[in-house]
Protein 1
Amino acid sequence: MYVLVNDSIISQEEATLKITDLSIQRGYGIFDFLKTVAGKPVFLEDHLDRFYSSAEQMRLPVKLSRNDLTAQITALLDKNKLSDSGVRITLTGGYSPDGFNIASSSNIIITQQEFEVNRDFEKSIHLMTYDYQRQFALAKTLDYLKAIWLQPVLKEAGADDILYHDNGMLRECPRANFFLINEKDEILTSKTNILKGVTRKHILQLKTGNFKIEERELTMDDLRHAKEAFISSTTKNILPVTKVDGRVLGDGTPGPVTRALMAEFDQYVYG
Amino acid sequence: MYVLVNDSIISQEEATLKITDLSIQRGYGIFDFLKTVAGKPVFLEDHLDRFYSSAEQMRLPVKLSRNDLTAQITALLDKNKLSDSGVRITLTGGYSPDGFNIASSSNIIITQQEFEVNRDFEKSIHLMTYDYQRQFALAKTLDYLKAIWLQPVLKEAGADDILYHDNGMLRECPRANFFLINEKDEILTSKTNILKGVTRKHILQLKTGNFKIEERELTMDDLRHAKEAFISSTTKNILPVTKVDGRVLGDGTPGPVTRALMAEFDQYVYG
């Protein structure tokens, strides 16, 4: 597999950063992740919007214009010739002379891997809630300390993923947004202090049936009364949640509202 | 300058990590930093204690035994032959196959740089307070997102460093501990949810004059009534603070209790 490191296409095995990079020194950087289907990037402009927004929020300079970055992604896709894949664009604080301040030139890495989204509508996952608020909630930073640290706790609990809440206010999963369907069949997702997912954005624009779909402040109490739930992300599209903290939602299988949404979103992405 | 990367002594310019390292992918790792004076490590055992403690807290495997790690540090010092220096030991999540879970083998990097602690007792700094609680407070992780992000804010405020408080409870500076001297001439430092500094530990053992020196829960109100203040770290020893959020402490120069402590600590380290 080929990757791009600061404008050079090289083999992934040869791709390195010097140890003075601010990601290695201080965990400082941002990234974005998009997928390709049949060789074409999906929602590319949304991901580029968020990439540049994350960089700006974290005060990281990006030397590539949007057009140049798009051209580099295209060049990498042309080189690797994968059909379904994930593409990651990482921007770090660069080679910092003092190991603390952001360098005048950041480092940019673009990688690609084979990857196909699960489209089996019967699959579902179990979540475990955890009290935590991501730092710099609106930026996709490299900070996954808590999520990685929690992996053994998650396995111990027999859950598949974590749902963060901030003192009872529902937030998001480490790498996905969270939606619930309440007793009025409203499809709701947390509104504030979360990373605004690209998949989430497109789900909010769907007009499935006559369901109301909207952002709202949600609490652990809303979660306890939810009839259905699902998570959304670039790598998962819509993935049903059938258990949270050991409590089964509905009859323990993906519910009717989630199924209707999945069918429509699948059509929306894959045509 | 020579550095050690996974058991190999190489030139710093050649020192790299592959881009699959979990520090580059997810900001995941820990480190410690010690100094040498006249070629000898200062408080080495304390730093090794904390290094292994940080690794354990963050679930990072360390393949080197304490004896082997000490031997590697010694080998690097022998190679670089610096008198006064800083030595950084960094441990990352390793080359993670999935870019998310900790690898079975972590990466370890030891670097050294010329460095001499300021021993001019007239120097002092200004602090700016900021509401923030470090994640994994007791571990020296790579997470310096907030501190680095705040650097322009700090410059704008005309301050030299940040003092974190958690909703009014005093904590620490990003790379130093904080002490204040109250109206009873008690020398106090925050007790909980902070990184326990090695310099801080040794200051707490001093018997300067008949001053009481101890850990205590401290608030912004204690800060407002402080007569003197200072920060402590491996790179700074004791450094007086003469202004916080624009308020001058005492007469704006290092106070008598701080000076007494500095003299004793200087003797303690440099003999």
Note: Residues 66-80 of chain A form the longest helix (15 residues).
Protein 2
Amino acid sequence: MVGVTEQEKIWTAALLVIGDEILSGRTQDKNIAQVAMWLNEQGIRLAEVRVVPDQTDRIADSVNALRASHDYLFTTGGIGPTHDDITVDAMAAAFGVPVVIHSEARRILENYYLNRPGGLTDARLRMARVPEGAELIRNPYSGAPGIRMGNVFILAGVPNIAASMLEGLTGRLKGGRPIVSVTIGARAAESDVADLLRETEAAHPGVAIGSYPFFSEGRHGANFVIRSEDGELARLTGTELSLRLREAGYEPVQGGI
Amino acid sequence: MVGVTEQEKIWTAALLVIGDEILSGRTQDKNIAQVAMWLNEQGIRLAEVRVVPDQTDRIADSVNALRASHDYLFTTGGIGPTHDDITVDAMAAAFGVPVVIHSEARRILENYYLNRPGGLTDARLRMARVPEGAELIRNPYSGAPGIRMGNVFILAGVPNIAASMLEGLTGRLKGGRPIVSVTIGARAAESDVADLLRETEAAHPGVAIGSYPFFSEGRHGANFVIRSEDGELARLTGTELSLRLREAGYEPVQGGI
């Protein structure tokens, strides 16, 4: 067996989406795609997502399963000021530590609400609660910070606040090589080019080709996404796939349709 | 302990979203919300979602975990004609049965491709493969059927094809009482009404109130979603919450903002 260097290691993350509003269908999740794209830029692969309801035991169990099986765990949702925001309590239960008021978080909130009506109420002070031992993730957008607890990163559920917290973490997590993806589209029914796709993938170990069909303007089409940690290999495979599609009578569209 | 009748039982389902395209962030998932809303109409609660990559063992492990812990398991993705469509193989592995060609699925596909260019190619015939013992879920949209295997329902990943398969299942699954939800919106920062929300929820056992903040047109606002299996109770709680909001100086908006 050959030793794996840090460069070669595949870094993985899981995402735990917390919220009844996602499971009821009321809210269309936008954090999965956003966290996935951001992780990819950090050279970290999103390997698993779970969505659980606002229930302490369900959250805690998932946290403990996922933080053990991945390099990183991100969570979204449940860190606001209302009674249904129980992520911090569930996280503390998962880690077996008490919930405490984080003094720096308290200062940030005091400052943020200084000239706002009502000031720092008890409800707002809830947003300074953290599992004992946690660090803060800065959030320039709305004051209330995210929370880091070991390899777990606790983000807000509102997508633009989550984005602001991710921005604060950019470049600060250890990762490997980002995955490069090249997309080729064609007005082909994917079943007509299935052999061609399989053969192209088989001829280039280290790439994965995904096929994503659509039907628009009365015609079938598909986008073929070539993904690899080796950018040169991804581009080369893209060029060859384009060539093969053209030979088969389909005009390839660089970047997809 | 009082016996639980079928009417009182809470029916739950899990959803397994299968696909590298979701985990890479390339595709924004639309099936979670769609399946959630459909299940709710059937009186079944979506209790958990997982997203896994196109890897046989990861799919099979999740299938076995989720089908055991819920009344129903739905999956989306990976049942097309290309090499990256491996859901059927993973499902067969999970159930410990071989993959076979389903004779009725074959007939459906033969008929569908009868007057289409190329006819029923080997790649298209892949879509007639099922785990041994499976039944079909009709799909008027594109011919290729979904698959039912015990309490597992295998749907397409393309949202409108998944919708068509769900339509075919409407009213055919055992469920309980649908959850009724009532939404009240207000131009209030949720931290200002946190106590009011907690008290209203506590005063009405059997309801859950979720608070979903937003910021638009330069002002804070939030929608409060009251959910209950008891429709009358949900409406009553909505009326009371509106009253309390008005008393606190916020004009409630029925149906949310």
Note: Chain A has a mean pLDDT of 93.
